């Protein structure tokens, strides 16, 4: 598979398995529930409920009920290719539910709008769908409806993020990646003024040979590639001086990776690995210079500590944080 969040430089950062190993495992229950939901809502049927519309045609009417659209715009909204959108419009034209005309802003494409019959059909569709969902929601308590809305909103957001990550590869760090990774860390550190003389991890003596550090037991580092170019990464390693606590370390992202939700995805992958390794908590150190990173860590459940733990050697990072696993 391939944020508007700035680079998340964690002043805290193996190569034990193949490139795509250790990614979040697919939940068979969630897959089954998703398939069942699609079937229960009739999305595999040739008709949308009792109306003479396919699901795609019904969704086309719903979007056109908001405003007139070009076929390309319809395709984007419905997440289908232009040819399928054009085919749906053609069928609706034959049913006299929509009409097309030259786009006044661009005569090379058609503008699609509802006919009076289309508005009438849309009203019937809305009534049918309202009745269907009223029957469904009547089975749920108000608190369950609120929980369902929040869960579906989260699921939809995850789907959008996953699509934006098409072409991105996450894999374990290898020795051949050391030079590129060190260059990324130095570039992002310089961008944010995290210079070696100030006590940040860019000054670590292991920076040019990180694959060695993360080949140690209880450690792992993942890199992110886009178009075969190494553009970021993050890792987990034991926290020196603290038994059973790991550290989220060296999370850096070049501009080409920002805005794709990858910082959260990679942080979750690191935390999943930490749990598998039996760590009881995950620690990190960061700085006020990275407000977007602080927001990410807070959203993951990290809380600020009154004083640092362990012996990281990163004296310039004034914000220690901890997450119980």
TrEMBL record:
Q: Which CDD domains match?
A: NAT_SF
Q: Which GO terms describe its molecular function?
A: DNA-binding transcription factor activity; N-acetyltransferase activity
Instruction: Say yes or no: keyword Manganese present.
Output: no
Q: Please provide the record's keywords in A-Z order.
A: Transferase
Alphabetized Pfam families for the sequence: Acetyltransf_1, MarR_2
Residues of the HTH marR-type domain: 23-157
- Annotated region (Disordered) at 1-23
The highest taxon in the source lineage is Bacteria
Q: Where is the composition biased (Polar residues)?
A: 11-23
Q: Which InterPro entries match?
A: Acyl_CoA_acyltransferase, GNAT_dom, HTH_MarR-typ, NAT_camello-type, WH-like_DNA-bd_sf, WH_DNA-bd_sf
Record protein name field: Acetyltransferase
Species, as recorded: Shewanella chilikensis
Show the taxonomic lineage: Bacteria, Pseudomonadati, Pseudomonadota, Gammaproteobacteria, Alteromonadales
């Amino acid at each position: 598979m391939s944020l508007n969040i700035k680079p998340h430089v964690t002043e805290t950062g193996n190569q034990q398995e193949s490139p795509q190993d250790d990614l979040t495992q697919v939940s068979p229950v969630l897959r089954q529930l998703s398939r069942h939901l699609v079937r229960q809502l009739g999305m595999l049927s040739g008709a949308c409920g009792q109306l003479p519309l396919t699901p795609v045609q019904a969704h086309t009417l719903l979007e056109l009920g908001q405003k007139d659209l070009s076929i390309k715009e319809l395709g984007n909204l419905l997440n289908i290719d232009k040819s399928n959108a054009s085919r749906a419009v053609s069928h609706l034209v034959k049913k006299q539910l929509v009409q097309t005309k030259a786009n006044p802003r661009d005569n090379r494409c058609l503008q699609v709008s509802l006919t009076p019959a289309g508005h009438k059909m849309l009203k019937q569709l809305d009534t049918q769908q309202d009745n269907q969902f009223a029957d469904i929601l009547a089975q749920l308590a108000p608190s369950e409806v609120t929980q369902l809305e929040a869960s579906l909103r989260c699921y939809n957001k995850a789907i959008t993020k996953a699509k934006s990550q098409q072409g991105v590869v996450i894999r374990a760090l290898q020795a051949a990646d050391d030079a590129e990774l060190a260059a990324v860390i130095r570039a992002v550190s310089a961008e944010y003024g995290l210079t070696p003389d100030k006590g940040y991890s860019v000054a670590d003596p292991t920076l040019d040979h990180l694959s060695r550090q993360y080949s140690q037991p209880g450690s792992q580092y993942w890199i992110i590639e886009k178009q075969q170019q190494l553009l970021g990464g993050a890792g987990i390693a034991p926290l020196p001086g603290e038994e059973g606590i790991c550290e989220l370390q060296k999370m850096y992202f070049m501009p080409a990776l920002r805005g794709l939700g990858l910082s959260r995805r990679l942080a979750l992958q690191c935390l999943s690995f930490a749990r598998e390794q039996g760590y009881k908590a995950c620690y990190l150190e960061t700085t006020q210079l990275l407000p977007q990173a602080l927001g990410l860590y807070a959203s993951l459940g990290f809380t600020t500590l009154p004083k640092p733990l362990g012996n990281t050697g990163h004296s310039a990072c004034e914000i220690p944080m901890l997450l119980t696993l």
